[in-house]
Amino acid sequence: MGKINYLIEVKNVSKKIKNRKILDNISFKIAPGRIMGFLGPNGAGKTTMLKILTGLMFPTSGDIKICGHNIQKDFEKAAFNLGTIIENPEFYNYMSGFNNLQIFADMSRKSISKDDLMQTLTRTGLKGAEHQKVKGYSLGMRQRLGVANATIHQPKVLILDEPMNGLDPEGMKDFRTLMKNFVQHGNSIIISSHLLSELQEIVNDIFIVNQGRQVYAGTMSDFLGKSNNIIHIEVDGDLAPAEKILLNNGYQVTRQLNNLEIATDSTDHDPRAEIARLLVQHDIPLIGLKLTHYSLEDSFLQSIKNDNQQKVNK
């Protein structure tokens, strides 16, 4: 097989269960070295899509390729390139981390030596704790052991479902480092998580699903966009005169209940001084100008709100 441009290719995937459409025409791709955040409200279809990717469920229609192998026609080769962590992984508490890993290695179709096991434990930050019983591991250590288990057969793709639940700040930091190290070697990751502030620290790409519908698939930078800063303008009295002045001067203004908002990219230029000068020149009683930055969480919630509104309007 020649060079693979995408480690995961999902094309027009739909899933029906008892005549209910759970997923509707989902498509996305993940290139080597990328981390994708897989986002959606509860019940949106995220878990169903992850089950399909891991072979626990088959789509009603559509195609999925993992490292060039069709998951329906050549499941073993496709699955060999996958590693998974579903929330907090389970281990044998009365055994050591090394022995737990040895059991999973013995079940692998790939020959894995004790040196391979130690290299994996070292890579995931567990060297020195490999002979401790897992019952004495912290949650962060258990999560690192989960990463070791998921990557012991050297997969190209990791699929993670809520992998950061319960981790303290140090555990979060360690987990981010593990994920960044993994993709440095041309591997890729899909992470489904509700901890969007943490995802924003590590993901390159975003996929959003809502009620089974695809809302967005692309880079995080494009999703956040250049207009991801909002200037909130508060004036004393009627908003209409200030809104008219700003519109006449080329600003895109949104009227809220008690203020006006302008979306802007203030990374290169902050227009608040110009806006204040313009309003004061026209005798508008300006009370305040406040700049807020839209986070991944803000943008995600807004995208879901917009998608729901579009469905209502149809």
Automatic annotation (TrEMBL):
<protein>
    <submittedName>
        <fullName>ABC-type multidrug transport system, ATPase component</fullName>
    </submittedName>
</protein>
<keyword id="KW-0813">Transport</keyword>
<keyword id="KW-0067">ATP-binding</keyword>
<keyword id="KW-1003">Cell membrane</keyword>
<dbReference type="InterPro" id="IPR017871">
    <property type="entry name" value="ABC_transporter-like_CS"/>
</dbReference>
<dbReference type="InterPro" id="IPR003593">
    <property type="entry name" value="AAA+_ATPase"/>
</dbReference>
<comment type="similarity">
    <text>Belongs to the ABC transporter superfamily.</text>
</comment>
<keyword id="KW-0547">Nucleotide-binding</keyword>
<dbReference type="Pfam" id="PF00005">
    <property type="entry name" value="ABC_tran"/>
</dbReference>
<dbReference type="InterPro" id="IPR027417">
    <property type="entry name" value="P-loop_NTPase"/>
</dbReference>
<feature type="domain" description="ABC transporter">
    <location>
        <begin position="8"/>
        <end position="236"/>
    </location>
</feature>
<dbReference type="GO" id="GO:0016887">
    <property type="term" value="F:ATP hydrolysis activity"/>
</dbReference>
<keyword id="KW-0472">Membrane</keyword>
<dbReference type="InterPro" id="IPR003439">
    <property type="entry name" value="ABC_transporter-like_ATP-bd"/>
</dbReference>
<dbReference type="GO" id="GO:0005524">
    <property type="term" value="F:ATP binding"/>
</dbReference>
